[in-house]
Amino acid sequence: MNKKTDKPARPASSIRSLRDFLELLESQGQCITWPHAVMPEPDIRNIAVAAGRDLMGGPAVVFDKILGYPGKRVVVGVHGSFANIAAVMGLPKGTGIKALFYELAARWGDQPAELPRVKPEKAPVHEVRIEKDIDLFDLLPLYRINAYDGGFYIGKADVVSRDPKDPDNFGKQNVGVYRIQPHGPDAFTLLSAPLHDIARHIETAEYEGLPLKIAVMLGNHPAVTMFAATPLGYEESEYAYASRMMGSPIELTESGNGLDILAHGEICLEAEYIHGDRRIEGPFGEFPGTYSGVRRLPAFRITAISHRKDPIFENIYVGRGWTELDTLMGLNTCVPIYAALKQDFPEVEAVNALYHHGLTAIISVKNRFAGFAKSMALRALGTPHGLMYMKNVIMVDADVDPFDLNQVIWALSVRTRANDIYVLDNMAGILLDPSAVVPGKGHHLIIDATSPMPPDPIGIDAEMVNPPSGPEIDELFNLIRNLQEANR
Amino acid sequence: MKCPRCLGSDTYVCKEGKEDGRLVWTMYYCNACEFNWRDSEPEETLNPDLRPSAFQLDPTRFEDFEVVLPPRKRRP
User: Fold this and answer.
1) I want to staple A151 with a disulfide (CB 3.0 to 4.6 A). Which of A80, A177, A181, A300 is the partner?
2) Residues of A labelled catalytic
3) pLDDT in tens, A206-256
């Protein structure tokens, strides 16, 4: 039951919008409304960081008393903890990370998906329509996320774009999370790495001389934002994945400029790419924990805005991890790599790519023969996300839980040999890696921390000590805990 | 109003924050270096003497910044 309203708690499958989800989180003690008035800076970032410190159980925080923005609301931390991710998936609070990983893997794919259409005139997102005198600074309660950011960033937008040469192809329509810096009342820049789908759309529009229209959705269904932050194949629909994961419909409508958007979104900015325009952008405190530097980025002009009445501006804290971005992206970075490997190799047990967009990943495999684990590492590097992001890959045996770093360090300590470490230099890397000599280029490091296997003759006679385990030991553990408590 | 980042003067007021008609802050934008700030922010962000030099911009060097996705030539 929702303690405040005495209404039955909403099941996750009935979530249609951010508002529905906040209600569900509140009923679970996972969303709070900040009771005091706040200044946009530094209060919102300070509170966001403090709420995000508990990565297992931190709440979403709603601000409705932001000085200078009367009547406006901001929410941060919607995906800020694994308790909130469990809530999106309809799983109990307290579900562990590994259990969430396997559950997400079991729901992976784009079939079946239910994507019913709502007529634009009936869609809540279009309740208020602005087509002239567009002013982003007036609409959004913007604030500086980190002290030296170059502007007041929109850090959690789901951006919809179509392939300019194949605009009717639903699968090639992309929904992605890209950072956005407002540049005046009706313009913004957007950061996309060349790998990302919207970069292909920008390049195609430029080469073909075609217009590129996009929709920037703010305050969205929480599953859609999860998949917008997921590295899917070019022709796969984020909406379809979100529906499959939820096991329920995701209602879509059409934006004024012809894109498929969420019918129950809070805000939608309709915009058009400005051909050839590159504007000064940054710095921005980014997920590696460093500021990204100043660059010149593609610019867009806002042509119209739709929003719900009293819209909620959803934003995110990003910086040195752990932050909401890590929880938002973590599991959905692990699972596509796992799903790709698992297709051909059932020996792959689990993938932990939770750390910093998968810059370091740990993969456990049932090692079949000498060299097998190394080939699995190379295959992971050939997945869409592995290509640029997976800098460091640690391979462990199936008896090591990749989500338990104590076990991983044990494997590194006792199963690694110096000649089982491989560096692939001058490979594709990410723009934001602060250790890159040339941004966009980098290395892949593979550490094979699996046991030697035949025909390798070395170390195969190492017999494992298997400490006693099972229900009897669990019972003893609890008994010892109780004795300890009794002595306090 | 001088820009805290490039110290230029080509700036404008983009929003005034009010409570019950009382001005609580003013937000500015710099046309030269595209910096955006609010006069109520902490000094570390606003005061050029306190801002680390790595975050200051020299407006004569804008052309040095890397272009992400350089504009493509149109198909012949």
Assistant:
1) A181
2) 286
3) 999 999 999 999 999 999 999 999 988 878 999 999 999 999 999 999 999
